[in-house]
Design goal:
The protein is mostly helical and 374 residues long. The protein has two domains: 94 residues; 209 residues. Helices cover 94% and strands 0% of the residues. The longest helix is centred in the first third of the chain and has 116 residues. The radius of gyration is 74 Å and the shape is elongated. This is Progesterone immunomodulatory binding factor 1.
Length: 374
């Protein structure tokens, strides 16, 4: 780029120098005719006028030529500048083209290497998938065999757990055998008999005890009822005696008042003495009967308290027996629920196995489809 600019400057200087020389020639040519016109005579005036016209025309032509040369030189400069710009652009484009070709070659080499690596990885993945498929098929066969064995065992277990009740003689026979030689049904039936039989005996004993205690409770209730009736009768008699005692006390007060009023004492002394003795005897009898009733009342109260305690104890024992019965019933229900839970678990395992088969078949189909698509 700098050498081209210097060449353009040299050309511009040459053009300007040539224009200066031409202008000097024109000025010399114009000055010579003017001096000749001044020194010439009148005869040559017409010729001089023609010459001046020619010189003016020539000067105009030279001036136009000079303008055209200047314009031509300017256009040449513009053309040279445009050529220089185009050359620089061409060089830049060639450099870019070379860089692009180099990048293309590098990318082509890189693409080839990546393609080779991808093909190698694809081969490795195909080999790994084949190995995985073989492993899956082997595992499938093992699972099918295990499923068949589990189904057989589940059927046998379900059939064996239907009837678990055995007799005492059968239990004694099974107990003599070692556990390794017993089947699942026999082992479960034996354990079930060992757990349930004591509970059944205990339930029977508790039911008998409950009936006995119920009868005793009824007897005690009847005795308590009779004692309450006798207690009410004695209480009624005591009330009557208290009323009679109050009446006699009032009569005694009236009698004392009569004695104070006159000689009633001397006149009626024997009768009063008899009445007093009678009243004292009746009072003693009433006191004796009152003490007897009080003692009997205390004894009845004590016996009533004892019976109440016994009734509470019997009720507690009945409640405990009911709780024991409920506990035994719950244990029996839990055993039944556990058996049903095991059956449900076995069914769930079968369903899971079926789902595993379906998932394995779907994975196998997907793998086959991927291999086919590849």
């Amino acid at each position: 780029m700098p050498p081209k600019k210097s060449q353009l400057k040299v050309k511009a200087a040459n053009v300007s120098s040539s224009l200066d020389l031409e202008s000097e020639d024109i000025s010399l040519e114009t000055t010579v005719p003017t001096t000749e016109d001044v020194s010439s005579s009148d005869e040559l005036r017409n010729g001089s006028q023609k010459m001046t016209r020619q010189l003016i025309e020539k000067k105009e032509l030279l001036h136009n030529i000079q303008l055209l040369k200047i314009e031509l030189s300017q256009k040449n400069l513009i053309i040279d500048n445009m050529k220089a710009d185009h050359m620089s652009k061409i060089e830049e484009l060639e450099e870019k083209l070379n860089d692009t070709l180099h990048q293309k070659q590098v990318l082509a080499l890189r693409l080839d290497s990546q393609l080779k690596v991808a093909q190698e990885e694809n081969r490795k993945q195909q080999s790994l998938r084949k190995q995985e498929m073989e492993t899956i098929l082997l595992r499938q066969q093992q699972l099918e065999e295990t499923n068949r064995q589990l189904c057989e065992k589940a059927g046998e277990l379900r059939r064996s757990l239907r009837e678990l009740d055995i007799s005492h003689d059968r239990y004694l026979e099974l107990r003599d055998f070692p556990e390794d030689r017993l089947s699942i049904q026999e082992y479960v039936a034996m354990r079930f008999y060992e757990v349930v039989t004591p509970l059944r005996d205990e339930v029977k004993e508790l039911s008998v005890k409950k009936s006995t205690l119920t009868e005793e409770l009824d007897i005690h209730r009847s005795q308590m009822k009779s004692l309450m009736e006798s207690y009410e009768e004695e209480r009624r008699l005591r009330t009557e005696l208290e009323l009679r005692c109050q009446k006699l006390t009032l009569e005694l007060a009236d009698t004392k008042q009569r004695i104070q009023e006159g000689d009633y004492r001397r006149e009626n002394y024997p009768m009063l003495k008899r009445e007093r003795d009678t009243c004292e005897a009746e009072l003693k009898e009433l006191k004796r009967r009152f003490e007897t009733l009080d003692l009997s009342h205390t004894a009845l109260t004590r016996e009533r308290n004892t019976l109440s305690k016994e009734v509470a104890t019997l009720q507690q024992s009945v409640t405990l027996l009911q709780k024991d019965k409920e506990y035994l019933h719950r244990q029996n229900m839990e055993l039944n629920v556990r058996c049903a839970h095991e059956e449900d678990r076995l069914e769930r395992l079968q369903v899971q196995l079926e789902d595993t088969k379906k998932a394995r078949e779907e994975a196998y189909e997907k793998y086959i489809n991927t291999i086919i698509s590849i």
